[in-house]
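Why do we bother with holo predictions? Because pocket geometry can differ from the apo form. Keep that in mind while you read this record for pyridoxal-5'-phosphate.
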Amino acid sequence: MAAMSDRATRAKAAVDVVTAFFARIQATADDPDALDFTFGNPHELALPGLTAAMQAQVEPRSVDWFAYKTSERLAQETVAAGLRTELALDFEPDDIAMTQGAFGALSLAFALLADAGDEVIIPVPGWFCYEPMLHAANLLPVRAALDPETFDLDVGAISRAIGPRTRLVVANSPANPTGRVYSQDTWQALADVLEQASRTHGRRIWLVSDEPYRRIRFDGIDFASPAASYPWTVIDYSYGKVLLAPGQRLGYLALSPLIPPAERDELRTALMPLGLAIGWGFPDAVMQYSVPALESVSLDMAELARKRDRLFGALVDAGVRVTRPEGTFYLWGEAPGGDAAGFCDALAARGVHVMPGTLFDQPRHFRMSLTATMETIDRALPDLAEVAAALSA
Ligand code: PLP
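The structure, written out:
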């Protein structure tokens, strides 16, 4: 008899390609010459504002400084005030559950809104952890393709993926891996579809808006949250991206203030007990105390834009088809010759490490992380151009 549960087997299988790639990249971790564009990890020392904010909270000011912490009130108040300004919606502190990053917030959303066996629609290409997380939660992922040319949200594809067992739709803007940012019109079209489908199936479909890259946008592009268009929305967020510190787990789940009052009240009362039930999903005390100071700390967006422009321009010059990122710190392109594995292997042989689209179920594409330094980008450009030329020939 197998030791692992069926859902553990499914969750593991859904992420096997990622863990195998992770192991391969780890093997290069000690190579000082490796040019690493794979995961969205920091490549420079932490932002000074981050360490200062944490240091200011380390020294205990009371005996319960490091006691069990659910959602700290000051953190909830700070997040609600920030969201009121950013999204122009009337969030209150009780709408906010502090979590271990967006990972924790998504787990909380799944526990809060879906029952075992419910279907959850996810974007493809999309973040590779949705599927394993859904399997681990005993939920069924259902894929809805993005537009294959523009990688815009394809509302028609979502509509076709909806069935009587659909409970949640996960949307992600700015989007990993494509860097696309969706418009208010797109969200309104999605809202219309979800409202109609909820009526048709006699069951409310909820929207989970996965927004960890919300503050990472280029060229002054507006951010629209679907929460403004569809009342039955919860938002998950992570500070790990904008602080470039994904190892310091901090994020939240926010209930839309537009959720009808009775349902909003019911969900609010469930946030704390479910945060506990998912395995004390609250962030560590020091991270929560740091929230007011961290609200204004950000990676250098001007420098990130310069890196985007340098890499995007060089790839275009090399004849590679790339989607110009509007947000996130990823660059998404089509592998020259159409075989991402071959492209990534040829680059890896030269010490340049790029993520193959196979991790996103897109074997013709690749993703590069702009968290690499400008120096790394400049050193990789000749190899990128030569490999692209060789494979396009
Ligand atoms: N959602 C998306 C789209 C992501 O890309 C990530 C991380 O890569 C997460 C959620 C999880 O974010 P965190 O690790 O900060 O919790």
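DSSP finds 13 helices and 13 strands in the chain.
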